[in-house]
Amino acid sequence: MVTDQAAGATDVELTLAARGGSSSRWTPWLFRIGSVGLVLLIWELYGRAQDTTLFFVPFTSVVTALWELVQTTEFWDAFRQTFIPFIWGWLLSLVVGIFLGLLIGRFPAFDALTKPYVTFLNALPISTLVPIAVILFGIGYPSRILIVFLFGVIEVTLNTAAGVRYVNRDLVEMGESFNGTQWRLFRKVILPASVPGIMAGVRIGTGRAVVGMVVVEILLVAVGMGRLILRYRGRFQSAELYAVVLALILFGILLQVLARRIELRASRWKSEMEQVA
Description:
MetI-like fold; mainly alpha; 2 domains; single chain; globular; about 280 residues
């Protein structure tokens, strides 16, 4: 009888623990959704309290304007003209940044060679390079790709290099003691262990690249989303202006979600590589 009671109590405890674990898993999402909902509610109430919608509009008006915009070919043409140079500059920043970061973090001589240039670009506001890009490449795709690339590549490089430097030195020395080649060390030890730093760089670099995309549109040549922003601002069409900005925010969030998915896949790959090693 005592044994049955103990077993029953154990089952109850396990059930409560499972429920507690499930609730704790959903708690962060509830806080996030609640905080976003609160901000949107304040936005809506504050917009409706204004005497005029010339400068600030309710959130529902912005959503309505965005829904109307996405049904026009002009919006998608503008998005395409903005997206094409962005995607090339973003992908180049990831590839070049990860490659340089691995070399900088692994080889002190290469770090010393590139440090002046990396430090210069990290300290320099990239938007100041827009006039130089125009002089060198004109106002076409090359200059726009270059600016987006410069916005993102430094963050990817620095975070990747930091991830390599924090690799467990015992693992590296063990691989070297077994006469492992540099390529094998990179593939089996350094690259898997550097995944957290690399993915941090990818997330931050992606956000910076989105900023670069907007800067290019505003300061360089307003042919895409920037053209819509400048037009609606000049006409005081606040709802449409906020709608375009909201579309860019949603685009940036989508890229962050994509980066997060890549990070999860890379983490699983890291675990598999560590098990094989």
